[in-house]
Amino acid sequence: MTSIPGDPKTVSALLAWARQSLDNAGTTNVAQEALWLLASALEMEHHALVSRTEQPVTTDQLARAKTLVSRRMAREPIQYILGTQEFCGLDFVVNSSVLIPRPETELLVHAVLKEGGLAEGATLVEVGTGSGCMAVTFATILEGVRILAVDCSAEALVVARSNAVRHGVGEKIVWIEGNLLAPLRDHVAAGTVDVIVSNPPYIAEGEWEQLQPEVRNFEPRLALLAGQRGTEFHERLFHDSKEFLVPGGLLVMEIGQGQLPLVQHAAEQAGGYTGLQTVKDEAGIERVMIARRAG
Ligand SMILES: C[S@@+](CC[C@H](N)C(=O)[O-])C[C@H]1O[C@@H](n2cnc3c(N)ncnc32)[C@H](O)[C@@H]1O
């Protein structure tokens, strides 16, 4: 690439250009994102970037910066551009085959560790593992617990497996491709699972158009969209989990804003659960549903 008059020539000019470009595209968190994108494009640490503002940029660095900034200007999530997202203190590889792990999903991990009573020999199943963020986190914390993770997306399971290897737990998780709990019959006996945890798709069809472009245009639809109510997966999980949970075992699910009444109704309809509890997120939204298998 040849440089053209007006192209930024120094790190500080490039930073100013990146901030302005992102601002024009309507993204938020402009200053931080400009720094992250340029650190990646220039292959420099953030602190080096801000302390070497007068350093000239090479034509290769400029070309890389333009590519990354234009991807973000098209509203691609910064996590897909940079390739990782932190979850429970671990770095997870992400790409467009998997949902970007969200901070509120960490509440499910905390709920399982607090309420699940997972001793050595216990069995934990994650349904809809995506990047593998929950299953891998559990595998790094829990000793002697059998962990199985299901997803219907073969592409997502490739990413999940790579994250397990990245965190040294590649041998500790059984990855299963299939539809919700149906494939579990080949792996566990009825009534033997201690915890089933899931962050299922929960966007209602009518909410799709209101999603941010970063989500609607880039994250997998399969990971997000439920049905008309948004709680169809919760209903299925309440129903299907009864076969697999031990008496006293836990079903822990993430729920969407305002979905609590529908999810409580689904629990009543399914029957067979006691001690429904919820956990609120930082915004005060009921975000986690915990149900205990009766018996
Ligand atoms: C909301 S994402 C959650 C991903 C990850 N567990 C997380 O919390 O970041 C839902 C996941 O469920 C998977 N999924 C959707 N429908 C499914 C089905 N019928 N059976 C199994 N997995 C499904 C999607 O591929 C996606 O990875």
Give an account of the 3D structure.
This protein has 295 residues and is an alpha/beta fold. It has two domains: 11-74; 96-293, Rossmann fold. The protein is built from twelve helices and nine strands. The chain has helices at 11-24, 30-42, 46-51, 59-73, 78-82, 106-115, 133-141, 154-166, 213-216, 221-224, 232-241, 260-270; strands at residues 84-87, 90-93, 123-127, 146-151, 173-177, 193-198, 245-254, 273-280, 286-293. The strands form two sheets. The chain has a seven-stranded mixed β-sheet with strand order 5-4-3-6-7-9-8, sandwiched between helices. A two-stranded antiparallel ribbon has the order 1-2. Helix 1 (11-24) packs parallel to helix 4 and helix 11 packs parallel to helix 12 (260-270). The longest helix is centred in the N-terminal third of the chain and has 15 residues, at 59-73. The model has no long low-confidence stretch (mean pLDDT 96). S-adenosylmethionine binds next to helix 7, strand 4 and helix 10.
Question: SSE layout and pairings?
Answer:
Elements: H1 11-24, H2 30-42, H3 46-51, H4 59-73, H5 78-82, E1 84-87, E2 90-93, H6 106-115, E3 123-127, H7 133-141, E4 146-151, H8 154-166, E5 173-177, E6 193-198, H9 213-216, H10 221-224, H11 232-241, E7 245-254, H12 260-270, E8 273-280, E9 286-293
Parallel strand pairs: 3-4, 3-6, 4-5, 6-7
Antiparallel strand pairs: 1-2, 7-9, 8-9
Helix pairs in contact: 1-2, 1-4, 2-4, 11-12
Bound molecules: S-adenosylmethionine.
S-adenosylmethionine (SAM) binds at residues 99, 101, 105, 128-131, 133-134, 150-153, 156, 179-180, 199-201, 222-223.
